[in-house]
Amino acid sequence: MSTSASNPSGFGFASHLFCRECGATFALGASHACAECFGPLEVGYELPPVTRADIEAGPASIWRYASLLPVPRGIAATPNTEPGWTRLARTDQLARELGMRTLWLKDERGNPTHSFKDRVVAVALAAAVEMGYKVLACPSTGNLANAVAAAAARAGIRSVVLIPADLEPQKIAATAIYGGAMVPVDGSYDDVNRLASELADDREDWAFVNVNVRPYYAEGSKTIGYEIAEQLGWRLPEQIVVPVASGAQLVKIDKAFRELIELGLVADTRYRVFGAQATGCSPVAAAFRAGHDVVQPVKPATIAKSLAIGNPADGPYVLDVVRRTGGAVADVGDDAVIHAIRMLAATEGVFGETASGVTLGVLGRLLADGLLDPGAETVIINSGDGLKTLDAVGSPYGAGGPAAIRPTLEAFEAWEASRAA
Ligand SMILES: Cc1ncc(COP(=O)(O)O)c(C=O)c1O
Ligand SMILES: [Zn+2]
Hints:
Blueprint lengths: L13 E6 L5 E2 L14 E5 L6 H5 L31 E3 L1 H7 L4 E5 L9 H14 L4 E5 L3 H13 L2 E7 L4 H8 L4 E5 L3 H14 L3 E3 L5 H6 L2 H10 L7 E5 L4 H15 L9 E7 L4 H8 L24 H11 L3 E4 L1 H15 L5 H15 L9 E5 L7 H4 L15 H12 L1
Parallel strand pairs: 5-13, 6-7, 6-9, 7-8, 10-11, 10-13, 11-12
Antiparallel strand pairs: 1-2, 1-3, 4-5
Helix pairs in contact: 2-12, 3-4, 4-5, 8-9, 9-11, 10-11, 12-13
């Protein structure tokens, strides 16, 4: 990244694409794989000087960081879902329960479709429009389908989302409502992703946000990192725990922290990045433990369906980040996921989804294993909403709902007595 100012284009101050494997550079445009080695491409910038005041004067959405994203200057005024600027909550009761000093929760339920995916989709949509694509599409583990269908509706363009047929009913309903095309596929997410890759080659004007527009899409997750630093008063946390499916979110939060240091917007303080997976789909945690650089694909079997990517595209880059920063990748089983969802709700009034349970569960595991310092300031990402994964926690009353009482004082007192017993 250089910091010499240049004329912003339809991609803002983004100046080129480069290969994450061999470093070859390419013009900005509709490519996602390196022509030399097939490695994944990433967006590079010639950033202008950016000040804290410039950013603070911006809108209460990800567009306050527009100059650090591959989007046109006037992006905030275009019809979009205006994601981001979610709250960073200090969670003292949860911290006490875990024996930690300072714990913060980045609550991504505050986004328009209740997960962080609205961020990446907004950036992908802007780039897709710039490149002349006509249809917004994706393979999805659920939350991305919600975000694509909503963003396309808002922008007035067609959407096509491909999902594994066994997704949570709430995620299917919360996608269908936006009126785009939704295609349930008989297979795992990795099967759906393969089909999407074939379609992306076949349908010239379809932007599969996380396939052929992936370099731009993934940049959207940087905004989680920017916001955390700004909300902490322009400084970095000492530790951060991030859920890992493809791994893009974790890798981009680290990229954001490094950019903020390079731009002089935060002090260059040490931070450690930790990744969280469900044991039933933990290929990156397994590679971390084994000391491997490559990630062996697995067949997922976990209630954390949003994280059920058995062949994660950014897996090796997650390993690079956690090893460079002195973090770790760990996993927890489904029972611990449910326990963590309940703990977060009961201590902080936050109902997170299964991915949230994975992240908090792994925080507990890392503490127990002595890998994470309970005295160091820590942030965890609550990436999605529990209302979309209701079946995972079930009803406390069983299938029929709570037994009703008669509307009398006597009936209420009898109910109270039965509870005390
Ligand atoms: C709620 C939630 N959290 C985290 C993730 C992980 O994102 P990534 O694929 O960037 O690792 C996903 C991905 O689908 C998700 O839906
Ligand atoms: Zn290459």
